[in-house]
Amino acid sequence: MGPTLDIGGVVIIGGGGHAKVVIESLRASGQTVAAIVDADPTPRAVLGVPVVGDDAKLAELKGRGLSKLFVAIGDNRLRQVLGRKGRDMGFSLVNAIHPSAVISPTATIGEGVAIMAGVAINADSRVGDLAIVNTGAVVDHDCVLGAACHLGPASALAGTVTMGERAFLGVGARAIPGVSIGTDTIVGAGGVVARDLPDGVLAIGVPAKIKGDRR
Predict the structure, then answer these.
(1) pTM for the structure as a whole
(2) 98 an active-site residue?
(3) Digit-coded pLDDT (tens) for 193-206
(4) Choosing from 18, 141, 166, 174, which is the catalytic residue?
(5) CATH for 10-94, among 3.40.50.300, 3.40.1280.10, 3.40.50.20, 3.30.70.100?
């Protein structure tokens, strides 16, 4: 049966560095973390949380009464796939929101979302399921963040920016008001999005220019 686990605690998929930040955010918000499943099932602990196997272990954990899940995987597409798998198995996707984040009461936050320390999310913005808003990122008013997208640390969206599903803004990247960033598009670290970007491209620089097609 394995170790005794806190039935009310969260099961985390992923045992890397991102999981460490998620664990600390969950604990800071008063939640407990019961167990980790990881692609590397080697028995170990991550910040004191036991790694109990790979994701094949999820069914057993659900059968033992654990019902809360968080997917702490940086890869956007894989995070979305695993989140859907967990939901289909009957897990509830919880949010990991650090208490230092400032979130407007009119903002809408999906399920399975990571909102790290120092984040600001302003009026009437919407954050989709399984998104990551990383440390110190800013989301101004009326933005729409698609499912499983990722705002890197210290990145910023001005008002009315739209990000498609699984889009990624690197560390310190910026987007000016009203632009659209396509599904699966990556903006490199420090880039400034000054015009709409289509789906599935890599854009870098100031202003961000398309340098490759990811499709």
Answers:
(1) 0.95
(2) no
(3) 999 999 999 999 99
(4) 141
(5) 3.40.50.20
